[in-house]
Amino acid sequence: MRQVAILGVAMTKFGVLEKTNLEMFAEAGLEAIALSNLEPKDMEALYFGNCLGDFEEGQMHMAPFAHAELGLPVGVPATRFESACATATVAIRHAALLVGSGVYDVVLAGGTERACAMGTPLATRTFAMGHHAQHESTAGLTFPGVFAMAAHIYSEKYKVPLKELKRNMAEVAVKNHFHGAMNPKAHFQKEIDVDTVLDGMMVADPLQLFDCCPFSDGAAAVVVAEAGKARDLVKKPVYIGGMGQASAGPLYLQKDLSRVMAREASIAQAYRESGLGPDDVDVVELHDCFTIAEILALESFGLYEFGKAYDAAAKRETYLGGRVVVNPSGGLKAKGHPIGATGAAQVTEIVEQLRGESGPRQVEGARVGLVDTLGGDFGTICNIVLRN
Amino acid sequence: MRQVAILGVAMTKFGVLEKTNLEMFAEAGLEAIALSNLEPKDMEALYFGNCLGDFEEGQMHMAPFAHAELGLPVGVPATRFESACATATVAIRHAALLVGSGVYDVVLAGGTERACAMGTPLATRTFAMGHHAQHESTAGLTFPGVFAMAAHIYSEKYKVPLKELKRNMAEVAVKNHFHGAMNPKAHFQKEIDVDTVLDGMMVADPLQLFDCCPFSDGAAAVVVAEAGKARDLVKKPVYIGGMGQASAGPLYLQKDLSRVMAREASIAQAYRESGLGPDDVDVVELHDCFTIAEILALESFGLYEFGKAYDAAAKRETYLGGRVVVNPSGGLKAKGHPIGATGAAQVTEIVEQLRGESGPRQVEGARVGLVDTLGGDFGTICNIVLRN
């Protein structure tokens, strides 16, 4: 495999936008191409992520239309990926695999989602189709419900009283809002405190409103290229060290909701490929769809022992300036979560961090970053280790 | 790139089935694995196609659930593709690219669709989301409408009177039903005559009911492996000679509906990669979603000059025993069209033909076969050249 680099990265503002998926993706894609000192005609393929365009805009088969919006040549294939929330990460992984293996030299990858125009009730119902429809959705399963169960199991298994766990989960939200307040692209740019979380509306006990990430509109895109070419084009390419992707089926096959099997398989692959491990990681963008999810992820990465990550935010270890900075972008919680775009926005943040371009939220001396995206209720995980 | 082979291939019966997408895909997938003399645990990745599971069954993120249904290990990534009707072909192409480049040695690829339970009106409305939603669906565009326009343009451009063109289009349907009557997996296994077509209900002038393929339920899957490994496992592996995939955006960017730009780019790539050309092709499975579509495709392949393929079926040149056999399976027209499965069923037919296993519809001495799948209204084309 050839060495693979990320060149230009770009994302729209995340939030409630009055733009179509194609408009948002074109904005991010064209900016990523321009920042790579390339033109649309230089792209050799488009790896495009979107989850529910058919419900959002009555649009299936969005990839060739995104291709047209970007002005790519006819010979350039445009391929849509859908892996629930892990959609864009899976698209980027495939772009990198095909560049690494010499099929392509330069590929645009990313994703878009326009959830807000549906309104929260319909967005909630449609995205809940990421559960197993026959056996689990019909039983009333929801994503907050799954992560609420995980929180209860965590509390029980590690003997962390629920009240203590809730306060520590709230600290995760406080941290990610603190970081998001420094991110001009974030959906929410306002700090909160622990009481904001603990006084919030109950969603699925013990998860309250501020334990949950929002639905957002937005798009993000990155240019993936062979490393030699990348070095000719941009001053600071960031390299893909290793990647992992794993699948664990529906919820009823998970053995223990406090351990995400697919993540453990995926991160092991990403570490092995990169020759790096948890001690090397300076900065992480991980899938904090709910506050408890951040805690579980940190343990699967080996950044904390199992049962020990719950108070990492409270101890400020995962804050800017802490021992490993987690979700400096604000994470899904504050930066926002346009489902099909999320993974590409995570890569965007890590690449900018490793280039030292993150302004007030720069992780000093960041050399190795980790991207983590979870699709559905533990069904898909995709990880990318990036390095200078 | 390493040489890539197809081992086991399998498809469910196509038609109106009382089965879920996961049940159908598991049936096809497990059979394809068994016919490869392998077990599910030997698969290193799953490339899975489905278009509208969210409307069909309230199921997004179907790939990891298909993975679980097949009993694949957790470390094996399952990835969903959606390229409208070209979905499964695009999934198989990516499986082959990743095997060819050494990322994987053995991959399962295919697709499934369950359109019939929605009923024709809802199926028609949902699959019409493959048009450009903002600019074209809102204008009332339908797939029969697009191909009806193509037929009018063909008639005008090549001075083939519409009445004559219609009779010749009917001959395409007659041929594909003739072939389908020999295929025990086909949705329709009954011969028809030209009058059946010309007496049919008008759908979109000049397309009548029997000019149009049906919605079907069904799944198909193939095992893709490195050629050396394939030779150890099965007696008659069939090799991938070359592949193409291209995108041409929405209908408003097509210059001439009698020429499918994306197909011309895609087939050129597939021929170039394979070192083969139209003179080498013995058998074709192509995208006859409408009878006129078969005529257009034959011309893009270079099997006929532009404006000359319209009477190929009437002259019996594309029948079993003709100079190039087209859609011996019955094609989308008679075998049926479960959207997300279609490309994998086309590959299944060509592989069986090249192995000499097609029974009464065997193309004698078939050595080179071509797969062609069109997604949307000319937005995506994927081609695969297979050979002994």
Could you write a compact summary of the structure shown?
The structure is a homodimer of 388-residue chains. Chain A has a ten-stranded mixed sheet with strand order 3-2-4-7-1-8-12-11-9-10, sandwiched between helices. Chain A has helices at 21-35, 53-57, 63-70, 87-100, 120-127, 143-157, 162-180, 194-198, 227-233, 261-274, 291-300, 331-334, 342-355; strands at 4-11, 46-49, 78-82, 106-114, 202-204, 207-208, 217-226, 238-247, 283-285, 325-326, 368-375, 380-387.
What key phrases describe this protein's structure?
two-stranded antiparallel ribbon; homodimer; 388 residues; Peroxisomal Thiolase, Chain A, domain 1; alpha/beta; 19% strand; 12 strands; 2 domains; 13 helices; ten-stranded mixed beta sheet
The helicity of chain A comes to 25-40%
Characterize the main sheet of chain A: 10 strands, mixed
Quaternary structure of the protein: homodimer
What is the count of β-strands of chain A?
A: 12
Our Rg estimate of chain A from Cα atoms comes to 19 Å
What overall form of chain A do the CA principal axes indicate?
A: globular
Strand and helix order of chain A: EHEHHEHEHHHHEEEHEHEHEHHEE
Low-confidence stretches of chain A: none
Description:
2 copies of one chain form a homodimer. The first copy, chain A, is an alpha/beta fold and 388 residues long. Chain A folds into 2 domains: 4-119 and 216-238, Peroxisomal Thiolase, Chain A, domain 1; 143-212 and 241-387, 3-Layer(aba) Sandwich (Peroxisomal Thiolase, Chain A, domain 1), CATH 3.40.47.10. Chain A has 13 helices and 12 strands. Chain A has helices at residues 21-35, 53-57, 63-70, 87-100, 120-127, 143-157, 162-180, 194-198, 227-233, 261-274, 291-300, 331-334, 342-355; strands spanning 4-11, 46-49, 78-82, 106-114, 202-204, 207-208, 217-226, 238-247, 283-285, 325-326, 368-375, 380-387. In chain A, the strands form 2 sheets. In chain A, strands 3-2-4-7-1-8-12-11-9-10 form a 10-stranded mixed beta sheet, sandwiched between helices. In chain A, strands 5-6 form a two-stranded antiparallel ribbon. In chain A, helix 4 (87-100) packs across helix 13 (342-355) and helix 7 crosses helix 11. The longest helix of chain A is centred in the middle third of the chain and has 19 residues, at 162-180. Chain A starts with a strand and ends with a strand. The mean pLDDT of chain A is 97. At the A-B interface, helix 2, helix 3, strand 3, helix 4 and strand 8 of A face helix 2, helix 3, strand 3, helix 4 and strand 8 of B. Strand 3 of chain A pairs antiparallel with strand 3 of chain B.
